[in-house]
Amino acid sequence: MRRRAVAVVPVVIGALALSACAPDRTPSDPLLVGDQLVAPSPAVSPPSSSPDGTVLPLDGPARALALDTATRTLAVAVDAKEIRLFSVDSPQTPPRVVPVPDKVTSLSPAGDGALFAAIPSANTLVRLDVRTGGTETSTVEGAPSGATVVNGQTVVSLRNRNAVAVLDGGKVTREITGFFAPTAVLRGAENDALVLDSNRTALIEVNVAEGRVASALRAGDGATNAVTDRFGRALVVDTRGGELLAFSPSPFLMKQRFPVPGTPYGIAYDAKRDLAWITLTERNEVVGFHVAGGEPVEKHRFRTVRQPDSVAVDPDSGKVYVASADREGIQVVQP
């Protein structure tokens, strides 16, 4: 498989320009790929066929997945308004169940054995202490879609407010505008956060300390999910374009663009092995790419459960966890 040629055109836009174009969804924005602002979705998967590894039963579709390495716990958000906590070392043991106000759409690391759970329908961000199962709930208007921590402050993407909120002590202290539909936020370099804007299909660098948008780059034809690696790069899945994109933090540039056919969607990163695991929703597969070199190199490929929208990886053992959004459970694969 040959790499698609990389054509990188940096688009650096100041905060005022971004803010000006956001409210009316102006299609002339240089980051937009077309006139319609429609976020991409995973493919509707075909029936699964003999998934590799083992499959843990789950009585419902999984909506989000995260693995906390400090507590060795796999967290799974399900439609029943709860988060289930499985022991990575004993996954067959019945999980602990943590009730939440409504359906969780994303789970992300909060540090020190905790996870953030975004609940957009309830305008709520939950910080879950994985060790105790205790929760702290913050009201964040605007449909929170993701969260991370930057210099001790919680940064939350707000899909319905076209903004990013900064929380201190669980309270919103500031909002940064200039987005179309921020769906995820990652910790960037130093004082920065990286915001994935799925409608604009752009990756946007935000200076949290100064409360402003720093710069922005197009992220393929339809970016959906992203993680950061140990080099500080953002690895972004372009679902609509069928690619894996890599963005360097300093300078902020797209460095790699690699074809991944099969409607890629979920992504997880193994820092010990430099493997990016990507689910292919059109094929019911998960693929592991080594990403430390000049271009990604495929190392593993496994059959999965149907509708593999979420994936997580345990860097200690290398085990990969794939969650079905179609009630087929949680798959565990040892490469």
UniProtKB/TrEMBL annotation:
InterPro entries: Quino_amine_DH_bsu, WD40/YVTN_repeat-like_dom_sf. Keywords: Signal. It comes from Allokutzneria albata. Residues 1-22 form the signal peptide. Gene3D superfamilies: YVTN repeat-like/Quinoprotein amine dehydrogenase. It comes from the Bacteria. SUPFAM superfamilies: YVTN repeat-like/Quinoprotein amine dehydrogenase. This is DNA-binding beta-propeller fold protein YncE.
